[in-house]
Amino acid sequence: MRTLFHELKRRRVFRVAGIYAVVAWVLTEVADVVFPALQLPDWTVTFVIALLLMGFPIAMIFAWVFDIGPQGIERTEPLAERARGVPHLERLGYLGLLAIAMVALAYLLYPQVFGVAPAVDDAPKESIAVLPFANLSQDAANDYFSDGMSEELLNLLAKVPDLRVASRTSSFAYKEQNLDVREVARQLGVDTVLEGSVRRSGDRVRITAQLIDADTGYHLWSNTYDRELKDIFAVQDEISAEIVKALKVTLGTEQEAPMMARAAPPTQDVEAYQLYLQARHQWKRRGEQALRRSIELLEQALERDPEFARAYSGLAAVYVVLPGYSGEDAAPYASKATEAAQQALSRDPTLAEAHSVLAELAVNERRWADAEAGFFFATSLDATDPTTHHWYSLLLRQTGRLEKSLEEAMLAQELDPASPIVNLNLAQTYAQLGYDEKALNYRQIALDLGFDIGTSFATDGISAMAAARSGDKERLGEMLRRQRQPDGERALNDPLVEAILDVLETNDWSEVDAIIARDYADRPESAWFQLYTYGGRYEHALNLALKYPDEIQPDSLWLPEFGGLRRLPGFIDLADAMGLLDYWKQYGWPDDCRPVGDGVQCGFSSLAAAH
Question: What is the pTM (predicted TM-score) of this model?
């Protein structure tokens, strides 16, 4: 046996075995972490381990036969005294050592996936979903208050170390759904579920909360709190602390569950807090009237508490989007949004929403690089804020990074599936990529959630594009007739609509040009950029865009139908005039452009037009 060990050492078998074990362990660790994140089935990790175990004896045989040296891979020559062959007993010894090594390797890898877990009753419950609290008040308008209660508890619990909390969107997707709590927990992948109810009566509130074990469906803890509204923040902290005690989560100290109250309540004025919650409810609805009502409520909240940072941040967010719904000049609102965001950050520099507002203002001013940096910083402060991901998606769509834009739009929708505007943005992004069926589906979801379509070009534009792509002239005509300018005037009169529909068959633009010259002399030339591009008049459209680059919406450049425009040499000049070229060089090229030699070329594909 001593000769065998000497021979194994000479052939570097021990070294190969050690390297193989380390590499196998690392690969197993990576698979155990990465595969679940990629949503691969559990058996894929087992498959990797099985492959590694089967590969071990093969590696040992190769290690015995071959050696890697300065001259490359060479066959290991046997010693002179062993040239006649390996004795039978030594061969059996080598096989025995190989078997022992495989057992050791299996023991090294096995616990990474199949290690025995503690009994369920003894395992710490370290994950939770906070379901929307039911509004038991007689006034259905108090939904904002019960939802706000749930969100505050979720935010507090999310700050507890070692406690994994399901996102707001995941939890709120089950609002008003009468599902078994154990099934909800299974779908969300959590150990426990917090549910409850809120009943308001005058200045008093009754809050009932119960923590449920996902495995058994039994209560781990429950309590009812009858308090005055002025005590609402103390109640939230109290409930959170009792939940942590029930979960037996150690917070990094020897104390079992210390009070983990927030650094400070968002405001000391409960009435201001209620006004803020009502304003956020209006903000999510969008539409001009809802946004103006949100401004009124936030201003009232700030009158009661001028130090209410969240109210300033909310006000900034409303100001930055209102011109898109009212058709007013954006400049005055941009100034108001900037001031409100700065007021918010002077009181709380960690408010992600306020940083996102400043980034969105940079988008509106086409300061693309500043916007990119702003959204990155906002996401680092709060990766679960749907507005940040929604607005970042808009930036990416305008700069031609459509696949990344779709990722951000989908993430925003996952974080806030009940938001009409977030669903609409997802619809628009799908339409931009040519996925008309998905675009129409999410457009309808946005409408079902209360988005005021009115005569909005943005929403009807999705239907118009789908109709044009499918060749449905009747539907396209209907969409074109419904579109309005921000002041309510029809965008296109009937003669122009009919002439546009005729162009689809004849490709004769003479009638369209005549009507535009006769009936629309007061409208800016740039207003017809998309029409000319859709019709394939790429040179004419590009000349208009180069003449008025500040009046062209960048996201319109990336429609699937505009591939011919992007292939023109002057397209890069247009991108440069819009400030896009420098942004691409710093943050990445758009999906349909790439550097070629000393220049840049676009129009390599029609994106997803075939879909």
Answer: 0.65
